[in-house]
Every structure is written in structure tokens, then in C-alpha cells.
Amino acid sequence: QQVDEQPQPASFVPSEMLMPPDYAGQFFQPASNSDYYAQSSYIGSFDEEPPLLEELGINFDHIWQKTLTVLNPMKPADGSIMNETDLTGPVLFCVALGATLLLAGKAQFGYVYGLSALGCLGVYALLNLMSSSGVSCGCVASVLGYCLLPMVILSSCAIFFSLQGTFGTASALVIVGWCSLSASKIFMSALDMEGQQLLIAYPCALLYGLFALLTVF
Amino acid sequence: MHPAGLAAAAGTPRLRKWPSKRRIPVSQPGMADPHQLFDDTSSAQSRGYGAQRAPGGLGYPSASASPQAAFLADPVSNMAMAYGSSLAAQGKELVDKNIDRFIPVTKLKYYFAVDTMYVGKKLGLLFFPYLHQDWEVQYQQDTPVAPRFDVNAPDLYIPAMAFITYVLVAGLALGTQDRFSPDLLGLQASSALAWLTLEVLAILLSLYLVTVNTDLTTIDLVAFLGYKYVGMIGGVLMGLLFGKIGYYLVLGWCCASIFVFIRTLRLKILAEAAAEGVPVRGARNQLRMYLTMAVAAAQPLLMYWLTFHLVR
């Protein structure tokens, strides 16, 4: 029996909104479109649906691995982990930073988001201009977001005691150094640019320094 | 339509509903995909899932699946999807082409071809230019050599980083004086950018009025004018550590250095003969000389204007 259905143009757009748990085709970046429809003549069943988290591309194991990479800046990075442009972890860390700032008495979510967006754009432009091979904006956002984790630690310290002293300044400097070291290490391994680690680390340090300004003052 | 579809489902062997939503199977995660730089390695997990799931079902209701399965199965919506994604690719190409019209990306890449040694030497030159002899930029077959190879060539990395560092240091200074709030950061950045734009426009206007034909591009000018931010940062930092005395000392030092440093600009504006120190008569050259001196004199003024309110 033919399995070709009558065309249903009316359901083209609304079906995305009707069945969000099933239709998550936007999350993967298509490399070649012909593969999608190679087996178009079928009627599948609901049982072989992939689980929701997998369809959304959220892989908690990878997120945890990447977090551990960031938390240990001395260990050499494996360039392939950062190949996924996974934005779940970064968004989570941004929200965590905003939440800890809120607990410390500063409701500055808008500044956190605005600064991270501008910073991502700036570092994306800089890396594309400086390196011979380009990067995608998603990769930059992902790396910068993961390396924001030590800043969350700093701002959670700010809840308990004020950072406006010698100890606060010193710890802010250490945290900024930690963040930018991790970020530049991952960029170096992903972009393969030798001899320019300091040049990459400095813009990242500036961005995290701006975050530290928000946290400390 | 739907009953026919369901009947077909009963008769045919069960297939995966979304067989190729993942990409072509790559043999290992992290392998370079020719279409994009970074692989989506989460697809490595999904292939494992797919193999496990195909034989067994989980008893989910299949009624909700059929409209979607039906919609994806028919050739018209296949074509529509393919058209939609090719449209997206076309849109991306269009954006890339138009960006190139407004922002000359290849020209900008020249100014960012730096390495750590160049940056170090240039910063040293900015603070102590008195021992440097040869200020000419080397040329290689009519095009100037990349900054990586010649310390006299202008670059945009240092000015850009110096600008952002200036905003950061301004925030730090305001914070230590308890005057900080995050919107002040934006205010400082915007005002410094506005002054820079004003300066560039003023110099371009005067170059036009004096009818000087030089090979000084706008980006070169931005680079030269951006170097003063390094001195400003030094001044403010010293002011934070040692008070007003330190601020004035370092600012005076950096102003003197900028005077000397503007020699590179002079070489570009003046005619060749005049630049080598041989006095050449003529109203034109005098005008050019005055212009260069005006630019050089404006630098310390701006450096003071943009930093004095930060040091108390």
C-alpha cells in the first residue's frame, strides 16, 4: 500500500507549535539537507522516539565533563569536547551568576546578559580577525559561558562578606585569572593558534574583569 | 488519510519516526565535518540510542504521532523544508556579502596580524620612544608589511584592547571611590568612543581642507589615535596607587611619549622630503606641518580630559 499521504499544507507551521516535545529538529545544525528526507516513505511509530533530553541535545555527562575541564585550568584541554556548541551550560551559569548577585543584593540580571552578549560578539569578531580559521559564534558563546563558572563562585562569596578590601581584590584577580586561563586554553586547543595564547587570554581577562567589577562593586 | 496511514503502519515493519534527524553518521566524535568547523558530538550518543530503541517499543500512544509522521512523509513538505533551509543558507551568504561591503574584513585582518613579541615591543615603544631610530614602515612590493614583522606598522589590536582596558580601569577607579554603578561603565565607554569618533572626523576634515594626498587610511588614523589610551591607563593606575602626584607624573611622561610617537603620523602626512628634516618651502608643506602639530597637541589635552575626573 502506498504510504504517500495527501499534502497537508495547513499543518506545516502549526505542527511545530502543537507538538513541541516531539519536534525538536531545529536544535541540530544541518550539514546536508538531503539526508533528512532519504527515507521519507515510511510511517514511524511513537515508540522509537528518542528521549526528550537527547532530542534537545542536552547531554548531562558532557556538561559535567566540560565543567570539570574548566575547574581545572592546569590540565591540558582536549580540543574535541568543545566541538559541540552546547549553550545549556552557559545559560545555566549566567542565570546562576545573576541569582547569586541577587542574593548579594544587586538585581543586575540585565547587565549580566547584556555584558555576556556584547562580550561574545566582541570575542567572536576578534577571534575571526586574528585567526586563519574562523570560529562560529555558538562555539565562542559556549566556551565563554563555561569559563564563567569561577565567577559564580566569586559572587557566591560576595553574599557572605564584602569584597571591597585587599582580600576581595586579590581573590577577584585570582578568579579573573582562572577564568581567562581556562578560556584561552580551550580556544588555543580548538583554534590551533600557537604563540598567541597571551593575546587571546587578555581579551577574555578583560571580559571577566568587567564581570568581576559587577560582582565586587 | 489517517486511517490509511495507520493501517499501513500496522502492515509495514516499524521504522524510526525520525530516521535522519541526526546528521550523517561520523565515524568518531570530533572528526572534522567539511560543512562546519565543529561537529555536534552529541550525535555519537544518539546512534547508540537508536540501535537500542528500534526493536522494542515503549507503549506510547501513537495517535499523536500520525499527523506529524504524515506531514513529514509527503513530498511537498519535504520540498518546502529543503527550500526553507536553502533559503537560510542564501540568507547567510547575503549577510556575509553585505558585511563585507560595510566592514572591510580583509583589510581589518591586516591590522590584527600580531603576535606577542610585536605587542610587547610596541608597548615598550609607547612608553619609551626616545631610543628608537627608524620610524619608517617597511614596504614589500608596494604593500606595507604586516605588523607582525615590523614594529612601526600600525595595528588595531593594541588600541582596541586599550580602549576596553580604559573602560575597565575607569570602573575600578569609580568603584574604589564608591561611585560605581554598572550603567556608568556604559557611559564611560560611549563617551570615550564619541570623543574618538569626533577626533577622527576632525582630522579627516582638516586633511580634506588642506587637500593633502596621502595614503593615510581611516583605519590607520583610528589606530594612531587609539594608542593614547595606553598612556591614559597608565596614568589612572598610578593615580589609584599613588594619588594625584603619581597621576600627573605618569600622564606628563606619556604625553611627552605621544609627542614623539606621532612622528609616524608625520611621516605619513608630510611629503617625503619634508619628513626627512630638509626644510621645504611652500605653503602646502607648512599647512601640513601645522596640521601634524595640531594633531600632536590635541593628544595630551584629550588624555587629560578623559581621565581627570577619575582620579581624586
TrEMBL record, chain A:
What is the recorded membrane topology of this protein?
Multi-pass membrane protein
Q: Name one GO cellular component term.
A: Golgi membrane
Keyword Ribosomal protein found: no
Q: Name where it's found.
A: Golgi apparatus membrane; Membrane
Q: Name one Pfam family in it.
A: Yip1
Q: Name the keywords, alphabetized.
A: Membrane, Transmembrane, Transmembrane helix
Residues annotated as transmembrane: 87-104, 110-127, 139-161, 167-187, 199-216
Stated family: Belongs to the YIP1 family.
State the name under which the record lists this protein. Answer: Protein YIPF
UniProtKB/TrEMBL annotation, chain B:
Give the record's keywords alphabetically. Endoplasmic reticulum, Golgi apparatus, Membrane, Protein transport, Transmembrane, Transmembrane helix, Transport
Compartments where located: Endoplasmic reticulum membrane; Golgi apparatus membrane
Q: Please give the family membership noted in the entry.
A: Belongs to the YIF1 family.
**Top-rank taxon, per record:** Eukaryota
- Pfam families assigned: YIF1 (PF03878)
Q: What the protein does?
A: Has a role in transport between endoplasmic reticulum and Golgi.
Comp. bias regions, Basic residues: 14-24
Protein name, per record: Protein YIF1
Annotated InterPro entries: Yif1_fam
Q: According to the UniProt entry, where is the signal peptide?
A: none
Q: Which GO terms describe its biological process?
A: endoplasmic reticulum to Golgi vesicle-mediated transport; protein targeting to membrane; protein transport; sperm flagellum assembly
Q: Which organism is this entry from?
A: Propithecus coquereli (Coquerel's sifaka)
- Which residue ranges does the record annotate as region Disordered? 1-55
Per the record, the gene is YIF1B
Q: Name one GO cellular component term.
A: endoplasmic reticulum-Golgi intermediate compartment
Its membrane topology: Multi-pass membrane protein
Q: Which residues cross the membrane?
A: 156-175, 187-209, 221-241, 247-266, 287-306
